[in-house]
Design brief:
The protein is α/β, with parallel strands linked by helices. The protein folds into two domains: 306 residues, TIM Barrel (Alpha-Beta Barrel); 59 residues, no CATH class. It is 48% helix and 9% strand. It is built from 19 helices and ten strands. An eight-stranded parallel β-barrel has the order 3-4-5-6-7-8-9-10, surrounded by eight helices. β9, α14 and β10 form a beta-alpha-beta unit. α4 runs parallel beside α15, α7 runs parallel beside α11 and α14 packs parallel to α15. The N and C termini lie far apart (60 Å).
């Protein structure tokens, strides 16, 4: 990349990197068009120079909607082997990125193994690691420790980091006069809020944002500006706190770009159906069309055990209105650490949402697989239907579960199969 350290700097100087070439190929996109969108900050390519096993991935405008899978060891469940199984599952079902949300135990060991084994971009939340290093005693973390942790993640090859830099002394001061149903539900946001409350200091990632950018530039870590004040209930969606933080994230987006740092913005959260489109529009307007990374959004709060469904509903609508990156939600959301079956369910639900949105947006090639599936269904070609499925294993299991008496039909309709009878009458 010559003297330019980041994908953004290279693009702004009209240099097409090897990562851009690969992304253009994967997305069936013109290289010059991709170059322009990266230069404008509308596409990011998270690609830490130390992540040597990486297959580059583009996130943003005119691209296929991407999905992220969260894994990581916790205080109660800390099997590195289990989390690596989750990584392998994410790769098997073609997730686009993985985030390590480890907050306890051997965080550094796991992070290094993850980067080594992952061909897809790896993200982290460095303040989780800071909290783990200081045994959960948040007020003992120093500004230097926060930034040393960010640097360590860069050295270890992390491709994108979530930083809650928009949660400032001014924004949190409004909680006393403008109440919320669910306060702060972001773990990283809550850690930063506690640190600010107990130390009386400003958020160091906001106060020393240029220093943060310098570290990101050195390794070409993409900044994922986190929404520490995201709504944790549909009652709090699109409220003062969410929007006031978003305005600051917009300011920081432009500052980061000036320093050559790639940026994407994280978004809600919990949002009712009728507010999703407006949330997407507001984010894109305020943050200079930076790629938008959303958790869900969950469209109702009453479905524990089924939040992969509430999330997929919101994710499909969000992506069809401009969201670029969906963070998966599993059936275990709000209840416990997901197991392997939960991870698979979350991945598939998010992929369905992303694909449905891509059809709506007219993404090149998105409709092709659906068309092939429709043809296979009309041909009663069960093997081809299974192979075209987003989850072939599950489709094959259901097909084999009941033996149809009419081999070319299924046990739902049998000899009354509509397709079969239509063909008999017309062909």
């Amino acid at each position: 990349m010559n003297k330019f350290k980041t994908q953004l700097q290279a693009a702004q100087n009209n240099i097409i990197t090897s990562q851009m070439k690969k992304v253009a190929q994967l997305e069936n996109m013109n290289e010059q068009e991709l170059l322009q969108l990266v230069a404008e900050g509308k596409i990011v390519i998270p690609a830490n120079k130390n992540h040597t096993s990486l297959i580059p991935c583009g996130i943003g405008s005119q691209m296929r909607t991407k999905i992220n899978v969260n894994i990581g060891v916790s205080e109660d469940i800390h099997s590195i082997d289990l989390e690596i199984e989750k990584l392998n599952l994410a790769i098997q079902y073609k997730a686009d990125a993985i985030m390590d949300l480890s907050c306890s135990g051997l965080t550094e060991k796991f992070r290094k193994i993850l980067v080594e084994k992952s061909p897809i971009p790896v993200g982290t939340v460095p303040v989780y690691d800071s909290a783990a290093i200081h045994n959960g005693i948040i007020e003992n973390i120093t500004k230097k420790s926060f930034f040393n942790t960010v640097r360590k993640h860069g050295e270890d090859g992390v491709d994108f980091i979530t930083i809650h830099a928009g949660l400032t002394a001014k924004t949190v001061s409004k909680f006393a006069e403008i109440p919320r149903v669910t306060g702060i539900v972001s773990r990283g946001g809550a850690i930063m809020f506690e640190w600010m409350q107990k130390t009386g200091n400003e958020n160091p990632f906001y106060e020393y944002f240029d220093e943060l950018c310098d570290i990101c530039q050195e390794f070409d870590m993409t900044l994922s500006l986190g929404d520490g004040l995201r709504p944790g209930s549909i009652a709090d969606a699109t409220d003062y706190h969410q929007i006031s933080e978003l305005v600051i994230l917009g300011e920081l987006t432009y500052r980061a770009r000036k320093r050559g740092v790639q940026v994407m913005i994280e978004g809600p959260g919990h949002v009712p159906l009728h507010e999703i489109a407006a949330n997407m529009l507001i984010q894109k307007k305020i943050c200079g069309n930076a790629p938008f990374y959303v958790l869900g959004p969950l469209v109702t709060d009453i479905a524990p055990g089924y939040d992969h469904i509430t999330s997929a509903i919101g994710g499909a609508i969000a992506a069809s209105h401009g969201a670029d990156f969906l963070c998966y939600v599993t059936p275990a959301e709000h209840l416990c650490l997901p197991d392997l079956s939960d991870v698979k369910e979350g991945i598939i639900a998010s992929k369905i949402a992303a694909h449905a949105a891509d059809i709506s947006k007219g993404i090149k090639g998105a409709f092709n697989q659906d068309l092939e599936m429709s043809k296979a269904r009309f041909d009663l070609d069960w093997e081809k239907m299974i192979n075209l499925s987003i989850d072939p294993d599950k489709a094959k299991t259901y097909r084999a579960r009941q033996e149809p008496s009419t081999k070319d039909a299924c046990t739902m309709c049998g000899n009354l199969c509509a397709v079969k009878r239509f063909k008999e009458c017309t062909l």
